[in-house]
Every structure is written in structure tokens, then in C-alpha cells.
Amino acid sequence: MSARGGKAFRPGKFLRPQEYSDDDEDDEDDDDSDEEESNLKPAKKASAKLSSSEDEDDEEEEEEEEEEPSSKKRKASGSNGKQKKRPKASSFFDEEAEASEDDEDEEDPYGTHHDPDDIVKKHYTEEDIQRENMDDAAMELMRQQDRRRAQAGTFGETERSVAEMAEEIENRHRMQNRRVPRAEFLEQGTNDDAGVPQFSPAVAQQSLVPSVSDPSLWMVSCATGKEMELVFQIMNKCAAFARQGRPLGISAAVAAQSKGRIYIESFSEPAVLEAIQGIRGLMQYSMRLVPIGDMTTVMAVVSKKKMVKKNDWVRMCRGHYKGDLALVRAVRESGLKAIVQCVPRLDLSVADMSPEEARRRRRTHKPPQKFFNAQEVQALGKHTLKRQRFPGLDTSCDYFEGNYYDGGYLVKEVTVGQMVKPCTDEDPPSLDELQSFRRRDKMKSIDDDKDENEGSKMAASLLDELSDLQGKTSLGSGGAKGAGLMIGDTVEVVEGDLVGMRGKLVSLDEAGSTVKVKPNNAADLDLTQEVEFLANQVRKYIPVGAHVKVTDGRYSNETGVVVAIEQLDSETDFTAVVLTDVTNKEISVRTSQLRESAEVASGQDKLQGYELYDLVVLSGGGSANEVGVIVRVGREDFTVINNHGIPREVRPEELRGKRNSTSMRAVALDVQGNQLRVGDTVNVAEGPHKGKSATIKRMSRSQLFIYSQTRTEHAGIFVVRSRSCVLAGSRTQNRGGPGDGGMSPFATPQSQNRGGPASRGKGDDGLIGKTVRIQAGQWKGYLGTVCDATATHVQVELHSRLKKVMVLRERVAVAGDKFGATEDQNRDIPSVANIMAPTTPFVAGGATPMHGGATPLHGGATPAHDGGGDDVWRPGGVVDRDNEEENGTSNDDGWGTSNNDDNDDGWGSNANTNSGWGSTNDKQDDNEQSKPASASVAIKRDETSEMEDGDANETPVWFMERVCVQLKNGDSAAVIKEVSSDNTAMVVLADKSTKTIRVGEVSMIPPKEHDMVLVTGGADVGVEGELVCIDGTDAILKDSNEDFKIVDFVCLAKIDADN
Amino acid sequence: MYLPPHQQQQNKQQQDQSPVSANMFYVTTLEHEIVLEPVYFGPKLRATIVRLLKEEVEGLALATYGYVVNVIEVLEDQIKSGIIEYDTGNVVFTVKYTALLLRPFINEVLDATVSQCNSLGFFAFVGPLRIFVSKHSMPEDMFNGYDGEKDAWISDDKEVIISSGCGVRLKIKGRTVESGNITAIGTIKDNYLGLVDDGEAAN
């Protein structure tokens, strides 16, 4: 609201008061809308201005105005706009314009402007055309010049006198320089003077900035709301003083938008003082000069304050919350106040401090954003907490220390503009902020939207929008370069004749507007190798089932498999539903953001050094050494599944380090006593996860964190006690084989060979190599390593004595693995019991996969097997033993034989070789103790005697007396009674008749269980006993001392029990 | 010609379908290297090689061939003399064998046994091959049909119930080859696909 006092106080130039009031009304209108002020009545303003400067100008101006339309018309058509802007233009001008138009027609020699066709037909000579062209060019030039002049504000100079022109130019320059003559007191708002057209908005704007030569501006405070009234008073005073002949020395008084202030413009401070003197409501002492630089801001038009609406996002401006995002829940007092909710920044530790400390802490420490948790606060026990309705809202909130909390959010009534400001377009809520604003009740399922706070939902929906937007913008930016297309992509043509065609992108031009595609089925299409398309004619083609990587957007860097492609309505792009690799979640991504890739990434899986699937130590929560495995990595927190299988949300600060390496070293035992390590596959035998098969990801003591690819919850991790599992699969079982150094190649086949009966002895394998404690009998309490096992007995190599003892299976308890005893000793009896009772579900569950591993190993050659009949080292072994036992007493047949050819003198027994043969034969008749020798002799002898009897049949090991044989010719059973030296033997048939047979005529009867057998080879050669059971190639026999021996089945010969 | 979007999609799918000459099982001759430690040398060397070969290869998924279901024959006479690795002392034998292979082909229809259901779909097995069928690949009337209590996918009219143990006929839409393992993505959203055996006969 300004009152222009300028004209009022120059008595000489001041016009009639009436006009003044007219002017004033206009001005009021102007103030109401700035646009009007600037361009609605420029002409009028101009005239006013000029008239106020000089009397002659009035006439000149009129003259100018008279001419202007006509000249305009003549020079360039389309001055209508100009005319409209001149409401003062009377009919006289119109006539004048028309008349001049007529003139123009007559003047124009060729009439090209108005009826070119006509004229051209009339004067159609070459010369004319040339002239016409020339004139056209000339006219064009002239027109351009005129246009320029018109823009510069000079009109129709031709019809004016030189003096007028000079005047005009001078005037113009004066305006341009904005040198306001002090004497003239032109008002500050010279920019209103549209009578002088402006060059260009930017330059003009710049030229309008007040300088030192302009009047100064004073600010005077007043009561809020009285500004306009006071300005009117000043104006009246101004007018009254002017009429009295003592004009006030001010040029303007303005009430700008600012409340409680008016501005007065003047060249002198005393003038201002005089002007405000005696005006009630103005605080005179508060008068202050506005610095020149700030003058524009005083007058700057501030756009109307944005009102906040419900569900608007706002930012807090005070205290700890400064800059925080908040959501408007309700608006009060017609927009002056609002109820907002935001994430609280509570500092509970303040309560414990002394007031001074607390004050200091409040000043220095900004508490982190954290949702209000009533239980947590109550647990501290120092605070009173009650439920209370928020005044004016019908929600019941937690009331704590003067603040209301609803669903974790702080709810507060604030003053709009002072405590909160609306989020502007330049500073919208960021993705991060929204994500932290969004709260999901972790304990409840995600689907349970009812209890989710509305604000949280808002954030969620906005998040989705944003991610969509992000997708779009990236698509948009990519659109210029071909919608994220890359060379090598498979694309599909979506437009044009070849719609539906698929091909490989072979090249993209620089601008990205065209692409070359090599069709997949070029032969069918009868096309050349490459077809060129516009980039928007093709789209990236991602088939269902493809393995993809997200290249952009919110899910950037996730990988997964496309399970579906959907086209949303009103969308050109396709959306792919991707099942992520690691987290097994479904995400929707635009196909333009996808790239086919074999890479398997885990997406966002790192936070402060912790990764997905890390075994971490949790702090707090009661037990000191609670551990867990990270199953989700969020932006600020983790979900950890602890050793009881309970998921928890924890922040990085609550974790106390990783235990991955411990987990890698850890060994646990399954229900059968098998070792379990990280990476093993197990079947869960009991508990809630019964029947599942999965891989051990981490382990902590006896708790296994098992990963199953088919589970979606908790990233596939679940927790099972090791005793509830059974090791699965053969691969995993002998996984340690080559890696275990020299021990395993010996141990494994051996143990396999020594197993009990094939039908039920699978558990035995597990026991061999284990450290056991003998629990009963003579060796009670001793620790040892199992080196052999049968269904009923185990052979234990004692740790403390250099001795192997046979113990009943039931009497040993597993105390550890082959690496030593483990601390857990109470599991042995069940393990043994289970082995002994293979029908229990545990073993049944584990038996099948293990079976596959065991069987092939069964046939394995066992070099380490000391009694093996088929191994290459056996002769040496036997010889050694023979040598030891018999070297002194009798001839060493083995050595004798081997040294037979080369009559080497190095062996003392060499000379006795021949007699050795003889004596051996003699012994064989009557001395059972010499049977081992005779056995080996039999072989050797056979080798040497081949030539003499030309019989290809070698004498078998079992060819000795008391052995039950079967006659090949008659299929009847017999017992060898006596073996003679010439490879014949006397046998007693079933009917007690005797018969002499040759070696080749009989075959051995394979011993059966409970038969009496004779050991013909191996370490226990010569031992007789009852065959207890047969396990594959092994046999267990009970000797006369009731001791059990394990021998190779092939070394057994059935003997007649009666003799 | 205007077609509703889903029909267009179907049309495209049909274009995809190359004539299905592929068979899920086939026999081929393959080669494998067996590394033996010296302890295994002896008269039964060949048997050992064969045994180890079966152990190592059966059940394995070879990237380009598929799962080795069974080693049919090992050409023992073609086992060449091995080569000693100087670093380890082990001997490498190259063994040729014929094997029965299982390989999933895209767009192949096969019957599978459902092993597990979850909220995103279900897993089904064809022998060693695991196939995931997403809810997006189920008929529309099953899209929201997951019943967490029964652990089953149930159609809106309650007639089709897919739960663990059921037999389904599905079409392979894609496969992923990892080291030693192949998984596939399937669909039951097409004619003649879906539940073929409610699994009760087996029980």
C-alpha cells in the first residue's frame, strides 16, 4: 500500500487535486496486484510521468501517441497488442490508423504486402522481379531496423523534427541511466514507467536496482495490522502539507508485506522524521535506515505462505529435532498450528544425571532417532508412564515427560512456520528419511497392516512412489541413451513391421537414437545380418527364468531369477518379478533395470563390518554368551536369529564381534556320533524341523545354524541341536579323506573292511577311529582309540598302555573323535544304543544316504589291512612274521624259497633249504603249530612243483587235513584226512569211506556261521575257532579262549568240528 | 488384430517353443578324470577306478549335460595308463563312460513331486532336479491361495490343493546352473498343467 507523494509536493508541477485522487485510486489497484502495476497501464503512466516532468512534453507525447499507431501499422503489421494496451486510445486514433493504412497502400509501389499475387501478375517483367527482390531485401532491412527502433522505444522518427528527436533521445538516455534528478523527486518506482519500453527483462531488472543516487528507505515499526492505516495517514498528511505549501520531503510511504513495519522513502532523514511526526501508532524511535542492498528485499514479493495440510511432510526447525522429518496429522487454528508426528529423539540417560549435567548433555548431545518403546522406558523403572488421550485427537497415546507418543512416534502440537516448515520441492523427504520414518512392528507379520501406524504406512507408500519415480527417472535418462540398452542385450522389437522379432543388440550409435539388431532367426526372416531400429522401437527382452542382476534403482545389485514378467496397465515398460538368490524374496523391477547375469550377489549384506550369515556374539539379553546368525542386514539394524532359534532385531552396537572362525573349527556330533562340521549336510531327525535336510552354515557348540535354500523366512536359516541331526550323504562323510593327511587313506578302507555284518553294521564305521572310554570290565576307565569294531565287540588301542584290547561294544562310550577326547561325554550310551538298534528312526534316517557311501568302499583294496589276502604287501608281512617266529627253530621257507635260485651265502639258513622242505612236510603231519609255515610252504611248493607234475592247479592254502572239501566229480562233501607230499590227500567221505584225491579234484566248502574254522593266513594264522559271523570279506570267530578275532574271510577254511 | 495382453503373451510363448525334440533323459559318452592315491594300486585298480568314478559322478550336475543319473558302462579297456602328478604323487586316469543323464529343457513339460510350499510358491522335485514354481506362475485363482496352516496352495474354489507330496505337471521356464547343481523355474499356468496327483494314493 503505497501512497505516492511525489507529485503532491511539487507545487509548480502538481496538477489538480482531482487528478491526484484519481491517480491514487489507480495506485491502490496497482498494489493489489503486481502484474497490473507493471504492464496494464504503461501508457497512462508514461504520460503522467512525462507530464510531470515538463509542460511541453505533454503535447509532444500526445503527438507521439498520435503517430505511434500509424507508424506501427505502416512498419509492421500486428500492433493490435499495443492498441489494446492503450485504453485511452480514442476513435480518433483508430481513424488515423486506418487513414494511414490507406496512404500506405498508395505509397507502396508494388503492393507486395497486401496483395502480392495481384501485383505480381500485373508487373511480371524480369526487371520488375529483380527490383522487387532488391526492394524486398531493402524493405526487409528497413523493417528490421524499424523493429529494432521500435523495441528501443523510438517511434516514427521520420515525421518528427530534429529537435523533437533530440529531445526524445535525451529523454531516453536519461531514463536508461536512471539518473533521477534530485529536483524532480521522481518516485522510486521508476520501473513503473513503461512509457519507456525496456530492453530486455533481465537487463531492465538489473537497471532498476536502487543505487546511492536514489532516495533512501527508512523502516519504522508500528503495531501489527495498522500498517495500511498508517500509510494512509502519512499520505493525507503529505497532501495536506503540500496544499499548505510546505511539502514533506518524502517520495513514498509503503507498507510492504512485512508485518509491523512501514517504509518511507526520502532523500533526507529529517524529512522522514517530519513525516512521521505526530502520527500515532508509529514508533518513531525505531526508525532505521535500510541498507541499499536490502532495499530490493523489502519490496520483493514473497509468495504466499504455503499452508500445511493433513498428511503433508514437514521439517522441524527447533532443538534436537531440527531438520527432522515430520508428518502433519491434523491442522489447528486455521493452519497456524499443526499436530505433527515424528521419530522421537529421547535421551533416557538424562534422568540419571544431576540437573547441571543434564543441561550440559542436552546442549551438547543430540540423541539419535529411535522409536519410543513403552516397555523399554518402563523397564528403567524411573519414569511414570500412563496412557492418555492426546488433546483434540481421539487416539490414545503414551504420555511421558510431557510428551505424547503414539505407536512409537512423538506426537506434538507445533506452530507452523516457526517450529515446522513444510517440505519444499527443492528439499523433499529423502528416501533414507522415509525409510527411517517408516516403522514396522517387527513382532507382527508384515501383512498385518492394521496395526501399522498411519504415518508409517504413508512413508511406505511414498517410498514405493519414490522408488517408482526413481525407476522412471533412470528410465528417462536412460531413454535418451536407449533405455538402458547395452550391446549384447537381447532385445525385442515393439514397434514397426518387425514387431515381436527378437535379436541381439550389436551396436548402438553415439546419440543412442538408433540401434542395430542381429535377429535371432535371421534365416527365417530372409534378412541381412543386421537390422537397424530406432532405440524406442526396441525394448530389452528378459525371458522368464533368466538369471538377472538389477542394475539400477532401489534394488540395485540384487540378483535373482525372473519368475514372472508383467505388463502393468498404462505402462510401456514391463515389470519383472525376481526371486532373489540369497534372501528368497520377490521383488518387482522394471526390465530396463535388469541385466542377464550369472552372477550371484547378495544385495545389501554389509553393515559396519558385519555380513549376512555372520555368527555374532550378542550383548545383553540375559545370557552372557548368546550368539546368533545374521539373517537380515537392514540399513541400520540386523535381524539375528539366536541360538534358541528366536529372531531378534539388534543394532550394530549391540553385537560384540564375529565368531565365524570359531564356527569353522567347531566340531559337533550328530545323533550317531558322526562328526559334523560347517558345510555338512544333515537330516533333522527330531524337533519342529524334523525331516528337513539342509546344510550347516554356522555352528556354535552343539547348536547348528542350518541353511536351507527352500526356506524363505530368516534367509533360510534355522537352528537345530546337533544331537537332533543325522549326517547325510556319503560325499560329506569322507569329505575329509585326502585332506586329513596320511592317516585317512589307511583308516577309511580299513574301517570299512572291518565293519560288522553288512546288514546292520553301518554304525560301526563311525566308531572306528573314535576315542572311547571303557566303561566296564578289566579296563574300565581307560581311554583308547577304536581300531576295529564288530557288531558286538570293539578293539581298543589304549592310550595309556601299548596294548589293544577287545571290549564288548556296550562297554565303551565315545569320548571324542580321532583328534582326541571332547568335553561332552554324556552322549555315548545313546549313540551305542542306536547303533545296536538300527530300527530306531534316527538310524533309519541316516542309514540310507550313508549306505551309498559305504558300499563302494567295501570292495576297496586295503593295503593297510594287515591280514588282507589280496594286498600286494601281504607276502612280506607274512614272511616277516614267520621269520621272527621260526627263524631259530626251523627253516624259513619264505626266505628259502626266495633265495633258492641264487645260492647266496648271506643267509645262514640257505644251506638248509632242501632239508627245510623235507622237514616242513614232516611237521605238517603232526604239528598244528607249524600250520602257518605249511600254508605258505604249500604255495611255494606248488610253484616249484608245477613243472614236475605238469599240473596247472596250484595247491590251495586250505589244502590240509581236517579241512572240509567238496569233491568236484561227485559233489559230495569230504574231510581231508591226510595230505601226502605229492599233492594228493586221503579224504574221508560222508559215508566214512576213504579216498585218495588230487588237489584239483576238490574244492573248499566256504565256511558258514557257527562252523569250526581254521585261519589259514593273516596275523592269526593257525587259530581255530567258531565262526561267529561273516561281514562281507571279514569274519569274526571265537577262539578256544573265548576271545574274538577278526580275520579275512578268504583266510578261513572250514574244518571238521568232530576231530 | 487386438488381443488382450495375456493372450499376446501366450502367443509369444508359442513362438518360443521350438519343436520339442529334447528328451529329458538321454545317454551319452563322457569323460572324467580320476585321481588315485598310490595306496589304491593293486590288482583291483580298475575296479577301484570304476567305483570312484561312480561315486564322484553319479548325482552330479554337469553344466552342459545335466544330472548324471547313472553310470551305465565304464569302458574298462579304454582306461589308459595314468599320469603321475609330480606334486602329489597321485595318478590321474582319464576314464570314458556312458551315462544316463537328466537334463531339463526349457518349455519341457514334466511331472514333479511337490516337496515344499512356502508363501512365494512351491518347490517340486524331478529326481534330483529342483524346480521352483512361483505364485506368479500359478493360475490366477491360486495367486492368493497360500494357506500357511496347511502349508499348501489352494485355489479359490478349494478344488485344487497343492501341498507337499502332490504330483504336479509343470513346464520348465528357465534353469540356473550352479556348480554341481541345476535348479529350474517352472510354471503351472497353462493348459493341461497343474495338479495331477493329490499324493494320497501314495500314503
UniProtKB/TrEMBL annotation, chain A:
KOW domain span? 307-334, 484-511, 541-568, 609-636, 675-702, 1006-1033
Q: Where is the composition biased (Basic and acidic residues)?
A: 110-121, 435-447
The record ties this protein, via CDD domains, to: KOW_Spt5_1, KOW_Spt5_2, KOW_Spt5_3, KOW_Spt5_4, KOW_Spt5_5, NGN_Euk
Q: Which residues form a coiled coil?
A: none
GO MF entry, a single one = translation elongation factor activity
- Tell me, in one coarse class, where this protein mainly resides: nucleus
Q: Name one GO cellular component term.
A: DSIF complex
The record's PROSITE patterns line, in alphabetical order, gives: RIBOSOMAL_L24
Any one Gene Ontology biological process term? transcription elongation by RNA polymerase II
- Keywords, alphabetical: Activator, Chloroplast, Elongation factor, Nucleus, Phosphoprotein, Plastid, Protein biosynthesis, Repeat, Repressor, Transcription, Transcription regulation
- Region (Disordered): which ranges? 1-121, 421-455, 730-767, 846-954
- Composition bias, Low complexity: 890-912
| Pfam families assigned to the protein according to its UniProt record, in alphabetical order | KOW1_SPT5, KOW2_Spt5, KOW4_SPT5, KOW5_SPT5, KOW7_SPT5, KOWx_SPT5, Spt5-NGN
Q: Locations of Basic residues compositional bias? A: 72-88
Q: Which InterPro entries match?
A: KOW, KOW_Spt5_1, KOW_Spt5_2, KOW_Spt5_3, KOW_Spt5_4, KOW_Spt5_5, KOW_Spt5_7, KOWx_Spt5
Where is it localised? Nucleus; Plastid, Chloroplast
Q: Where is the composition biased (Acidic residues)?
A: 20-37, 53-68, 93-109
Family note: Belongs to the SPT5 family.
Q: What protein name applies here?
A: Transcription elongation factor SPT5
TrEMBL record, chain B:
Where does this one sit in the cell?
Nucleus
What residue ranges carry the coiled-coil annotation? none
Per the record, the major location class is nucleus
Gene Ontology biological process terms from the UniProt entry? positive regulation of nuclear-transcribed mRNA poly(A) tail shortening; positive regulation of translational initiation; transcription initiation at RNA polymerase II promoter
Tell me the InterPro entries matching this sequence.
NA-bd_OB-fold, RNA_pol_Rpb7-like_N_sf, Rpb7-like, Rpb7-like_N, S1_domain
Q: Give start and end of each S1 motif domain.
A: 104-175
Pfam annotation, one family: S1
Tell whether Transcription is among the UniProt keywords. Answer: yes
GO CC, any one term: P-body
Residue ranges annotated for the RNA polymerase Rpb7-like N-terminal domain, each copy included = 36-89
Q: What GO terms are given for molecular function?
A: single-stranded DNA binding; single-stranded RNA binding; translation initiation factor binding
Q: Which domain of life is it from?
A: Eukaryota
Keywords of the record: DNA-directed RNA polymerase, Nucleus, Transcription
Family under the similarity heading: Belongs to the eukaryotic RPB7/RPC8 RNA polymerase subunit family.
Protein name in the entry: Polymerase II subunit RPB7
Organism expressing this protein natively: Seminavis robusta
